Amino acid sequence: MSPKINFLLLVSAIAQVFAIGISFKPVQAQSITPANDGTNTQVTTNGNQIDIDGGTRAGANLFHSFEKFGLNQNEIANFLSGSDIQNILGRITGGNPSVINGLIQVTGGNPNLFLVNPSGIFFGPNATLNVPADFTATTATNIGIGENFFNAFGENNYSVLTGSPNGFVFSNLQPGSIVNSGKLTVNSGSNLNLLGGTVASTGELSGGNITVATVPGENLLRITPKGHLLSLEIPASVTSTNLSVASLPELLTGSGTSVNTGDVVANKVTAQNATLSAQKNLTLVESQLQTTGDLNLLAKDTVFVRDSVANPFVAIA
Hints:
5-stranded mixed sheet
């Protein structure tokens, strides 16, 4: 089967040229601080590199818990792994968005890396990745592992969390936002996932299979292993929270911005397969989208395309 470009409007059949201005607040990253919750995450600073070790093992999964997780420019968050670890899952429990403007890397093994902060995640213009397998950034409140859930806050029974991650629960009525203005890249054949209540990427996303998706509150999102088939479900009973989350306007400057809860914004995407899936509007601002396989552009409300002579909209599969 030949690669395809799939434009899908699930509610309204509207495609239009429109102008939108998006800019970002100058933000200061936080330090990386382990949470004092018994997970045994250990953080050691060596110059501009912050080594992350310890944690709690469950089968082939390694869990970390942070009070704060942020990087300034030129700083490196180095997750230490082992050859028998398949997944590293790091949660941020302090209630503030993560501001990441440096390098996230994994050394010592080839695991997938999950970064979970229900309060929001901001990747600054200097944010980059050096990970050996999949990378997922999400504002989910719980991650399904087998028949159980890894909670992004509160207590966990780590002994039962031995399977592979298979779903993302957003128990907040208004899930947190993800903003990317950096260059996030994974290897060919690996998956890059940005999953939140609202996702705005004016930076670059590249790699094997890319999924950028917004999820309404009190829903569970499943992604197939290939990384570009999505399904929503009503989640089983999981821990709920009153944890505050950062709305997109808190991460963006207020003027000239027309991005709302449930929207996806994407600028540069280069992948084997890519899915941009918005629960409300999908905004493509002079976007350059290119895949060697399928390109799926999905919105429940409207697909907005901004085009110009200098920067024409491009979608190639």
